[in-house]
Specification:
This protein has 298 residues and is mainly beta. The chain contains 5 helices and 16 strands. The protein has one domain: Beta-galactosidase, Chain A, domain 5 (Distorted Sandwich), CATH 2.70.98.10. The strands form 2 sheets. Strands 3, 4, 5, 6, 7, 8, 9, 10, 11, 12, 13, 14, 15 and 16 form a 14-stranded mixed β-sheet that branches. Strands 1-2 form a two-stranded antiparallel sheet. Strand 6 and strand 7 form a beta hairpin. The protein is globular, with a radius of gyration of 18 Å. It starts with a helix and ends in an 8-residue tail after the last helix.
Length: 298
């Protein structure tokens, strides 16, 4: 965790302190501003990053725990949705990223829905590459009040002229109920139905969960390595670190291949729970149906 603070200190030394702000209020697309969700509250930033509050805690479940993403993007969380186009890396901008070709910017919708299973709350984010609007995502975060997960619908798009292999990632630096450390957690067989991290005291999980569209690669180990694997290696490492003292991040990857235009929507889930069954059980039929399916892997 110290390295994270060192990176912020370096930025302050460089005279960029005006870009950093902690726990600023957000806009109407912060769930708690319009509705009263429980037990999770979601906030979404202009660069595709998110923050989650659980059970009314004042500490976020993602690093930085006291940071709040905001509409102007002045605080960057250590998470986001990335894309490789060949060897180019497009990222959700963060101080944790060592290098990248370009970054995503976008707009966030107001909330729709009523929070019920028939009409869940829904927030949409349109992300475009800062230099080329032909590369990007539409992302929908969907929440049913009372659940300990968000369902995600991720729709990538690339130009019709694309000739490069496209890879899509969702990466998260965890902070589990005031603990920055924890071992990797998985369920199922490689490449797993569930990939995440378990708090060192075994009290809470954070994890991605397959619902309809399985990933083909994954990582759950030291945060600085996970967040930078798309840039250095153009793929996730499939490394799982079982050490409970690991300052952990985790992520999943879909290798789409050489594709053109708007792609089929990828559906999956991210959960924040003290009962892993609560984010797996109700989707077990999807997991059973899709086990063994893979998106093209390199």
């Amino acid at each position: 965790m110290l390295l994270k603070f060192y990176k912020i200190i370096i930025i302050l030394i460089l005279g960029l302190s005006s870009q950093i702000s902690i726990a600023q209020p957000y806009g109407s697309n912060q769930l708690s501003n319009d509705v009263t969700p429980a037990p999770l509250d979601l906030r979404i930033g202009a660069y595709g990053d998110i923050q989650i509050w659980r059970d009314g805690s004042t500490s976020g479940q993602l690093y930085h725990p006291s940071g709040s993403v905001n509409a102007s993007g002045t605080w960057y969380m250590y998470n986001g949705i990335f894309m490789n186009v060949g060897s180019d890396t497009y990222v959700s901008y963060s101080y944790a990223i060592d290098g990248y070709t370009d970054y995503f910017t976008g707009g966030v919708s107001d909330i729709t829905g009523s929070g019920t299973s028939a009409d869940p709350w829904r927030i949409e984010v349109d992300l475009e590459n800062n230099s080329s609007s032909q590369y990007g995502f539409n992302v929908a975060y969907i929440y049913i009040n009372g659940t300990e997960y968000f369902d995600i619908e991720l729709t990538p798009f690339v130009p019709n002229s694309n000739t490069e292999i496209i890879k899509v990632y969702h990466l998260v630096d965890s902070y589990l109920s005031a603990s920055d450390d924890g071992p990797a957690y998985t369920s199922g067989t490689d490449p797993y139905d569930v990939v995440g991290v378990l708090a060192a005291d075994m009290t809470v999980f954070e994890a991605f969960v397959v619902t309809e569209d399985p990933w083909d690669r994954y990582s759950s180990h030291y945060y600085d390595y996970v967040l930078n694997e798309p840039y250095y290696d153009q793929q996730l490492s499939n490394i799982l670190d079982p050490d409970e003292d690991t300052d952990n991040a985790f992520g999943v990857q879909w290798t789409l291949g050489v594709v053109k235009g708007t792609q089929p929507t990828i559906r999956y889930r991210v959960g924040f729970t003290d009962d892993i069954g609560s984010i797996i059980g109700c989707q077990q039929s999807y997991i059973n149906k899709n086990r063994g399916r893979t998106i093209k892997s390199n």
